[in-house]
Design goal:
By secondary structure, the protein is mainly alpha-helical. It has 13 helices and no strands.
């Protein structure tokens, strides 16, 4: 069943990016991240009580707390970087870079979790890396060139922190209910997100958010919550080196909806890159 949960995570993660993009056209990305984290936290704790996992809270070990907190901090950093990149960059470029965290996750899973890296997995890593490169080097028009490359730095940082999130989360949910683990780490993300809002002086922008964008931000939070619950359930039962690549297939959902909603198209080079990423990801399952 962990494979089903992994694909469910990919579906909801893909919807998250599109809904979030719709919600940060005029809204500060840090403020939007903080708001959607509130929604994710409420959703996560609702599932804890539905599952009856709140009774296990007292049995969580100190080691588990430490890794869940570290995982939550890495997630918060990844989110802040990701939505900053998403606000200023092309979604069809930002998302592939973020999904390239698969490569680092596989390497960290090998080094820290002692998960095996076969020749096939190494070939898959090569395909994913090549595909990502092709997707982010597509020709830009004059309007896009004016935006600069600031989004690229944030997208790369997002991928880095996302890979750390997976490894720390894998260790943190050993021996604890996955829904409870998700709720705990979301609390850490919430604190971190709101801290950034106040440190950057963006709290005054909350009153300026339109109802339409607020609605998209909340829907994005719900999609994120659903994706997380599926993801950490899959991660608890399955190997991180396979669960993570499946989750990254959310890029297909994102690109499909970016074409329908934002009319962002892929050229031949970027399409080939997408094909390589998907091929590399699916081969991970062999």
């Amino acid at each position: 069943m962990w494979i089903v949960y992994a694909f469910g995570s990919a579906l909801f993660a893909g919807l998250t990016s599109i809904l979030a993009k719709c919600g940060i056209k005029k809204t500060d990305s840090n403020a939007a991240t903080a708001i959607r984290t509130v929604v994710v936290l409420l959703f996560a704790w609702l599932m804890v009580f539905v599952d009856g996992a709140q009774h296990d809270l007292g049995t969580v070990t100190a080691r588990t707390w430490i890794f869940l907190i570290l995982s939550g901090a890495a997630t918060g950093a990844s989110w802040l970087c990701y939505f900053k990149a998403l606000q200023t960059g092309d979604i069809n470029k930002v998302v592939p870079i973020d999904k390239s965290s698969t490569i680092m996750t596989i390497l960290l899973a090998f080094l820290l979790l002692k998960e095996e890296i076969s020749p096939v997995k190494l070939a898959c890593v090569g395909l994913i890396a090549a595909g990502t490169f092709l997707m982010i080097t597509k020709k830009e028009d004059a309007g896009k060139k004016a935006e600069g490359k600031g989004w690229l730095i944030y997208a790369l940082l997002s991928a880095l922190f996302a890979s750390l999130t997976s490894i720390l989360g894998k260790v943190g949910i050993e021996g604890v209910n996955s829904n409870l683990g998700t709720a705990i780490r979301t609390g850490v993300v919430l604190i971190m997100a709101w801290l950034v809002v106040f440190l950057t002086g963006k709290q005054h922008t909350l009153k300026q958010i339109s109802r339409k964008e607020l609605g998209f931000i909340c829907l994005s939070g719900i999609a994120t919550g659903a994706s997380w619950l599926c993801y950490y359930k899959a991660l608890q039962d399955g190997p991180a080196s396979i669960v993570v690549p499946i989750d990254k297939l959310s890029i297909l959902v994102t690109i499909l909806f970016s074409r329908l909603v934002f009319h962002e198209r892929l050229n031949r080079k970027a399409s080939l890159g997408l094909l390589l990423i998907v091929a590399g990801t699916l081969l991970m399952l062999l």
